[in-house]
Amino acid sequence: MSMINLVKKTEIVLQKRGITPVPSQVALAVDISGSMRDEYQAGIVQAVVERCLAVAMKFDSDQLLDVWVFDDGHGYVGQATMNSIDGFVAREIVANGTLKKWGGTAYAPVLQSIQAHYYGTEGKKASKLGRLFGAKDKAGEVARQAVGEQPLMILLITDGENMDREAFEATLQALRSRRAYVQFVGIGNSDLSYLEAVAEAEPNAGFVQLRQLRGIEDETLLGALISPEFSKWIGKQG
Fold first, then answer.
1. What tens digit of pLDDT does each residue of 54-104 get?
2. What is the C-alpha to C-alpha distance for residues 161 and 190, in angstroms, rounded to an integer?
3. What is the architecture of the domain spanning 23-235?
4. DSSP secondary-structure letter at 93?
5. What is the Cα–Cα distance from 205 to 220, expressed in whole angstroms?
6. Residues β-bridged to residue 182
7. Where are the domains of the chain?
8. Going by C-beta distance under 8 Å and a sequence separation of 6 or more, which residues neighbour residue 176?
9. pTM
10. E strand or H helix at 183
């Protein structure tokens, strides 16, 4: 499926949801714990990243997607674009020896990294904001928070519950003060009732579980990424 066609399908989902895209930042965090090996090897993660990029291309003014992976640690992969998306997962993630892989599962570290990327000193965008507002870059100083920050859409894909519940809940609660929404997408048949309950308790978080990704319709997956709850939230951000 070409990215152009995926973007068109995303437009259909947005129309059904009644969403006029608000200029936003879009971040993706993909589980790379041990239980996810088959999904990487089968090309399922590549397909998911492509569809997340299609969503990002309708919201992000630069038409790019910032990508992280996580197990019980985390790593910032870089930016996926229409020009780089072919073979992105195999090239930038699986073959990347600097990324920690196939461990346990913890949500807090990657969410903290994403917050730092946009609101602090980690990553290219934060460094730019720091220079613009008179702060030093990530050489050890904290960049000031930009005035009038755009909404942030965080997509977190996971197939299992986490080992860091207290830190995770505290990190998620810290996002309440930001214009940030976390869409948790559970995949597979694992019991994700804890994650679902936490997401339901947070005003800026949502949860959906897709039991089977093999052969899933594009509109079903895109509809999970652009959930009805997110649709209501982003409608208030314009």
1. 999 999 989 999 999 999 999 999 999 999 999 999 999 999 999 999 999
2. 8
3. 3-Layer(aba) Sandwich (3.40)
4. I
5. 19
6. 154, 205
7. 23-235
8. 202, 203, 204
9. 0.88
10. strand 180-187
Q: What is the pLDDT of residues 139-174, one digit of tens each?
A: 222 222 332 479 999 999 999 999 999 999 999 999
Helix (H, G, I), strand (E, B) or coil at 57: helix
Tell me the per-residue pLDDT of 198-235, one tens digit each, with 9 for 90 and over.
999 999 999 999 988 888 899 999 999 999 999 999 98
